[in-house]
Fold this sequence. Notes:
Layout: E1 2-6, H1 14-23, E2 30-34, H2 40-52, H3 56-77, H4 81-102, H5 108-133, E3 138-140, H6 156-168, E4 175-179, E5 182-184, E6 190-192, H7 197-209, E7 213-218, E8 239-241, H8 242-250, H9 261-266, E9 271-275, E10 284-287, E11 295-310, H10 320-330, E12 338-340, E13 344-349, H11 355-362, E14 367-381, H12 390-397, E15 405-408, E16 414-420, H13 424-443
Parallel strand pairs: 1-2, 1-7, 2-4, 3-4, 7-9, 8-10
Antiparallel strand pairs: 5-6, 9-10, 11-13, 11-14, 12-13, 14-16, 15-16
Amino acid sequence: MKIMKFGGTSVGSAERMGAVSQLLPSQEPVIVVLSAMSGTTNHLVQIGEQLAQANVAGAESLTNQLEQRYKQVVAELYKQDSSKEKAHKVLEVVFTDIRACLGRNFSPVEEKIILAQGELLSTQLFQIFQEEKGTTSVLLPALEFMKITPEEEPDHAYIREHLQQQLAQYPGNQLFITQGYICRNAKNEIDNLKRGGSDYTASIIGAAVKASEIQIWTDIDGMHNNDPRVVKNTYPIAELSFDEAAELAYFGAKILHPSSILPAQQQNIPVRLLNTMQPEAQGTTISSKKSGKEIKAVAAKDGIIAIKIKSSRMLLAYGFLRSVFEVFERFKTPIDMITTSEVAVSLTIDNPTYLPQITEALQRFGTVEIDTDLTIICVVGDFMEDKPGASLRVVQSLRNIPLRMISYGGSKNNISVLVNTEHKVEALVSINEGVFQEREENHA
């Protein structure tokens, strides 16, 4: 069985839905995972923001606007009156659920219910479209099998059991359609896997059914070696290892949800990143295969905060780092980079939610300095110790840019540097010129 996930842009209009339908295989079973149509989730977020401000009239106006947009989609997508009638019934149910939230005291529960409606809309409309084409398909409600634990992690055992139960009801069926992003939490309330979570859904489902392949279809022809929005002459990478792809996704490559690699990696299922706008393009294949190339790609992660704890008591202090890490564990704040000296430790975080509490807790260890507006530049490849020169080329390419921190050796797959965000674009361009273009010229 194959998993095919299509993002919001891929199903962003009636025309795009029709194009997606042409990509589905006819000779093998497939589970199609759909995001909400592009712009829908942002619109639903705005409705929630209006309700959080007790502006019911504003929320109702936004709801009416969204409903009108979907009525237009229905008019364009279907040819048969019977299909249009089914689709309008779907709209009636979904928008009744949204309006029911307008009349209640707004809470995170109502917010999650509202946010779930985008995927419920796209999947039901797509399934009606398949029916009109004469293609047999089954709608698998994600809320019947996707569940997260109290720690907000996927409950893999529950998902595997309940998904298999759903599939077993339809022996011989080739096409299944389900929602990305949405799930239920440990309280059985409607919840979600956060922004970009449809990728994660596809990978979790792929692992649960031991799929032959997981395809992530977007509007980009694979993962590029650099950020094409700010750097010229980038190119898609044909192959990445699971570890390399995970590093790139975590450190800013927007094409892939950071968590979506692990479930596929654990089951050794290849992941392919493909372009719905250019389906003939090779894209990027992520697998356990090692390519042997030293430097593959670079990604940048903004919104970084640097925290420096300076204390003369650090010298030979047993348990000092453990005490520091316990502060971040207590406030559920992950650390991205860390460097140490005899009298100081510097580290970075990307979540400022508990920064005041973290700062106060760390002050008992020494002087605490906070810097903001920073960016981590992560260069990914195979930096084995028996391959001299790769790290040198990276650092030399950044010789004109002030580097705040350098992290090397924690992983054989990346070198990370911390720069002021104002130097981000210059750093990405410099690496492109000093590493990738130089390598191409040497191989020419």
